[in-house]
Design brief:
With about 90 residues, this protein is of the alpha+beta class. Helix content is about 25%, strand content about 40%. The chain is built from three helices and five strands, in the order H-H-E-E-H-E-E-E. Strands 3-4-5 form a three-stranded antiparallel beta sheet, with no helix packed on it. The longest helix is centred in the middle third of the chain and has 12 residues. It is globular and about 45 Å long. It starts with a helix and ends with a strand.
């Protein structure tokens, strides 16, 4: 979260695994593999002046010894380079 707030995309992406099994699933049901996730977030960070994330709930479910399902629920406050402000849960 600290890396996100510093808009340091490289550090923010370090915890995520570059694995063929990696899958990011979004609230709208869309999903991406690791490379798509990195690309989407790298491009998104270029549009930002500010972002703050507040964790409401997070869960780690260990499916196997090498697979984890991580879910994050929170609030996000964003300011785009255009000055537009966005808040979402």
């Amino acid at each position: 979260m600290q890396s996100v707030e510093r808009l340091d995309i490289e550090s923010a992406l370090k915890p995520w695994s570059n694995s063929p099994d990696y899958l990011a699933i979004y609230p709208d049901g869309s999903y991406e593999d690791y490379y798509g996730f990195v690309s989407t977030n790298t491009e998104a960070f270029k549009q930002l002046n500010y972002m703050k994330e507040t964790t409401i709930k997070e869960e780690f479910r260990f499916l196997t010894k090498t697979q984890v399902l991580y879910t994050w629920f929170g609030k996000r406050e964003i300011e785009l380079k255009t000055g537009e402000k966005i808040e979402n849960d």
